UniProtKB/TrEMBL annotation:
Pfam families: Abhydrolase_6 (PF12697). The keyword ATP-binding does not apply. GO terms for molecular function: hydrolase activity. Residues 9-111 form the AB hydrolase-1 domain. It comes from Candidatus Corynebacterium faecigallinarum. Keywords: Hydrolase. This is Alpha/beta hydrolase.
Length: 124
């Protein structure tokens, strides 16, 4: 598959991780002259929250009983975050191709996004 030199790789992490997992990949893409953007899905990375019971000193009983900080995050929330990221990127360089690269939960998010918005995505 040949790619347009204006292509941007949008990297979507999996569950239990965040955008920093893509650091080595982004480094390699940059060395090859490609642009990339790694997003943090809602509740991950800089947007993550940590229960008070998990912070020092830890209260493991309270932590075990506390609902997940991701309990209210839905697949639609993740897709909306990806839509916003792609919209921002396409606003910076209109009509530039986008290649979605995803892992785990990011793959589910990317699949739903691509089904809803086939035009900005590239398949090969």
């Amino acid at each position: 598959m040949s790619l347009d030199t204006r292509t941007t790789f949008v990297l979507i992490h999996g569950s239990g991780t965040n955008s920093t997992m893509w650091g080595p990949i982004q480094q390699e893409l940059a060395l090859q002259g490609w642009r990339s953007y790694a997003i943090d899905l809602p509740g991950h990375g800089a947007q993550a929250s940590y229960p008070v019971s998990y912070q020092a000193p830890q209260d493991l009983e309270a932590f075990a009983a506390e609902p997940s900080t991701l309990a209210g995050v839905t697949l639609d929330d993740n897709v909306a975050a990806l839509e916003a990221a792609v919209r921002r990127l396409r606003g910076l360089q209109e009509h530039s191709p986008v290649v979605l690269v995803a892992s785990s939960l990011g793959g589910v998010t990317a699949t739903v996004f691509a089904n809803r918005h086939p035009s900005p995505c590239r398949t090969g």
